[in-house]
Amino acid sequence: MQASLRLLHKSFCSWHHPPSTAEKLSRLASRGHLDEAVRLLRSNPSQDFPQLPAETYLSLIRSCIKFKAFSQGREIHKHMVNAGFEPSLVLLNNIMIMYSKFGDFNETLKVFEGMNERNLFSWTVMIGAFSKNGNAQKSLDLYGKMVSSGIKADSFVYPLVLKSCGAVKDLRRGQCVHGEVLRTGLLGDVVVMNSLIDMYMKCEMVGDSGKIFDEIGDRDVFTWTTMIVGYMQKGRPLEGLELFKEMLNSQVRPSSSTLAGVLPLFSDLGYLELAKQIHGLAAVTGFEYEKHVGTALVGMYANCGGLCFGRLVFDRVKEKDVSCWNTMIKSYVQVYLSGEAINLLKFMQLDGIHPAKSTWSCFFLQSTKGKFSIHEFLKLIKCLEHAEVKPGVFPVTLLDQMCENIEKVKQVKELDLFFKRSGGIADSSVGSCLIRMYSKFAELEPALEIFNFLGVKELDSWNSILACYAHNGYANKASEIFNEMRKTRIEPSVLSWNTLIAGFVKVGDFEAALETFSDMKWANQKPNLESYKLVLPIIESSTSSMMGKQLHGILLRSEGKMNKFLCTAFINMYGSCGNASYAIKLFDSMDCKDLVSWNSIISCLMKNGFLSETSRIVHEMGVAGVEGNTITWTTLVAGYARHGLVNESLKHFRELQLKGLKPNSITIASILPACAQSATLTHGKSIHGYILRNGIISEDLFVSNALIDMYIKCGLLEYSEQVFRRLHQKDIISWNTAIQGYVIHGRARDAQSLFYQMLDEGFEPDPITFSGVLSACSQAGMVNEGWEHFNNMDLKYGLIPTGKHYACMVDLLGRAGLFEDAKNFIFQMSLQPTASLWGALLSACKMHRNVEMAELAAGHLLELRPENAENYMILSDIYAEARRWNDFNGINRMMEDHGVRNLPGFTWIEIGNSVYSFTSENLLNQRIKEEVDTMLLLLKETMIMVREGYFSEVTIMN
After folding, report:
1. pLDDT above 90 as % of the chain
2. d(CA 273, CA 267)
3. If pLDDT is split at 50, 70 and 90, which confidence band does 942 have?
4. Which among 150, 502, 659, 843 counts the fewest CB atoms within 10 Å?
5. Separation of alpha carbons 512 and 534, rounded Å
6. 913 DSSP assignment
7. Are 720 and 711 in contact (CB under 8 A)?
């Protein structure tokens, strides 16, 4: 009775006191009538609207979360802000939850950052939002800030943090969180334990996952599923299958996620009967037509040859998502049923599912498998157009294949027309692809037209048009585009900067390239490896010391302190410019020296002849604990050989091998000229043996050519012939070396014959070839052939004769006694006569005792090379043979006046493993003389035995 009276009293009061706005809003919120609630809020301006209590706003926000009313929730929050209402911590936390559930990460973060105070719930929501948005690292950073602020995590926070650790594979952080879980006593929380299993699985610590799994007494379906799916993803399917069987025996009912994780194993096996059995299990569990399990079943049947069964499952799947549709479409495309796939695509759109990029990837599956075919691609497009289906988005892999395999500009234009017709050209990635294709054929105008057609120009579009101009030699235009891009507030990527630098490098504007590199650093864009690959060769190739210093200054101003890559590049540059002192200063200033840096300074010093300084650096390198590599020792071997220190070169070659390093082809090719210089045949043959044992000669012409040259210079022409004949492949250097070898050994006819053989085998002669051939003609007195070769250089082969070729012709004419022809030839030649030319004429005059012409040649020679004693000696010999003693004495006085001394000739002799040199003024020491006498005596005895018919093996012991 009293209850009825209270109800009547309440009704009576409500007739006389209508509900307040707050009460109306609360009722609407509880019923989910949020549109009416928003209309009520809009009906009165915020400034005239009565201040609502926090409970009203809280009920509205919670209702928006419950009924997934995103737009209404945003409107309510906006009204709250406009009304100047200061929400409580609880209300702010709910607003964050609302935005987070609706996927509006930016608004979630904005609310979080605007909070004056935060509790554990606030931090949990924001950490979860970062994790959900894919910002796992920021999620972990935020967790660190939370802990630093003195707030301790709970069983809700730890799973979020462990998920982020797994996403970025941060095992160390994950292990720290595991330690915190142990300290807080949450090991009994199955959700936290499941998260630990997942984290260790994703961090490739499968064993640790197994340990935690074993520690869990009361396992739920998520525990089993996490472990099973982990095994499957880590390529351990049999262990996953065993665990799945164990799960079934434990009476834990599999979830849809469990089945979706296990089914790919049966799909990979490809057995249809087995697939049917697992399908039966899915049917028993009741998840047969759940979208994830259904999608996995469709894929399994497609791979097992049961497409019809897959379609039956597909038709019954509830709430199909894009992945489910894609799987069925892909299944049809795989068996070339494009018509069925297109029909399915139409049904997909009718079902309200918009095709994604992945959908079109399924459609163009066959196009991306092999080499891209324009014909096949357009055929498929026509089928789609006929079915009134327009491709919305094209997969990037397909676009890349189109760009890579396009062969004709006509094909590009066909694609251009299709994309314009279908509207696909509006897509930035499609437009960028077409620009790149036009760029391949240097079609700049249509490329620019497409770029201008694009409504929204994204970074890839700018990069494509930038590359189009830069790669085709229009660096200044590319620079304009680059500046225009920056004006539109598109931030250039490292690729943008590299493209512009490459453009300047292509046109040879190295200064602009380096300035761009400097600007890149000022713009806070960190150069990548490609950036340095572009810039370092510019620095290293600079042969001007002044320009090199300017480049050095530019980079110092922009970098402050250069890294080791740049320092090494400048050391190489200073070495090339002959400025070794700067290279040493730069090297000494380096804090971090690696092996490349040491090798560069050694090469620099060797190149510039600082041999004692090189020894010091090599010693310092050893003290620093840096072990040299093959490049180090090869540099030393080649350097000493180049400076004529043959013994030092051979010594370092032996040291290289003693250190257990293997000489490469460059080392071998460097040591062989040293053997040739000193005529050390024993060493040369030893190296030849090493080459044969290691198969270098069969694969490296550089070594083979050096070996031929060594044998020629050591006097074993027959050995060089054998090496030459056994070459599987020859280059022009091989032929030139062999031709020169015949010339050196006086076999001019063989040199000529080899030249014609070279022509028959299709090789084009070069200037060095003609030097050898003309020298051969001179030796053999073949004047007509010499003229023919000389004239053919320009007329037949387009080669301009050099001073050396003119000298060969003068030598040819002089040896033949045709001095008037030689004189006319000299005065009519287009080049300034060289010392070698006059020297050839002077030698011919000595041969034919032509004093008058000798005086003409000597006059020019003594003017060009007054320090060369040989020229004085030849002229004095000519005067002596002509019995012109006054002129003879005059030459000797002239030599004394000019301080010219006739240098004695050197002779080398190899005894044992050593090479000794001596002159007429510097005779062998007594010990060596005795060894030589013994060898000569033994040789004499051997020759007598051979003459008398006796043959004996003679061995000379070292």
Report:
1. 25
2. 11
3. low
4. 150
5. 13
6. T
7. yes
Query: How many Cβ atoms are within 10 Å of 727's Cβ, its own excluded?
Result: 16
H-helix segments, 17-88: 21-31, 34-42, 54-66, 70-82
Measured CA distances, 190 to 220, 265, 918 (Å)? 8, 27, 92
Alpha carbon distance 519, 501 (integer Å): 11
The answer to whether 223 touches 190, Cβ cutoff 8 Å, is yes
Among 713, 794, 797, 807, CA closest to 758? 797
Instruction: Report the distance separating Cα 524 and Cα 930, nearest Å.
Output: 76
Nearest to 686 by CA among 678, 677, 697, 675: 675
Rounded distance, CA 870 to CA 835, Å? 12
Contact 289, 318 (CB under 8 A): yes
Q: What tens digit of pLDDT does each residue of 469-506 get?
A: 999 999 999 999 999 998 888 889 999 999 999 999 88
Torsion, Cα 448 454 460 462, to 10 degrees, reads 50
Length of the chain, please? 958
808 band by pLDDT with thresholds 50, 70 and 90? very high
Residue 47 is which amino acid? Answer: Q
Could you give the C-alpha distances from 318 to 291, 324, 540, in angstroms and in order?
6, 10, 66
The string over 470-494, giving b where at least 16 C-beta atoms fall within 10 Å of a residue's C-beta and e elsewhere, is bbbebbebbbebbeebeeeebebee
Q: Where are the alpha helices (DSSP H) in 406-509?
A: 409-422, 428-440, 444-453, 459-470, 475-487, 494-506
Collapsed DSSP state (helix, strand, coil) of residue 18: coil
Distances (CA, A) of 314 to 10, 265, 326, 357: 58, 19, 11, 21
Q: 877 with 843: CB under 8 angstroms?
A: no
Average pLDDT, integer, range 569-574: 80
What are the phi and psi torsion angles at 914 (to 5°)? -120, 155
Q: CB-hemisphere CA count at 13 Å for 558?
A: 21
Structure token digits, residue 735: 């032929």
User: Helix (H, G, I), strand (E, B), or coil: what is residue 875?
Assistant: helix
Q: Distance (Å, rounded) from C-alpha 390 to C-alpha 39?
A: 40
Calculate the alpha carbon distances from 635 to 581, 604, 632, 641, 913 in Å. 19, 10, 5, 10, 23
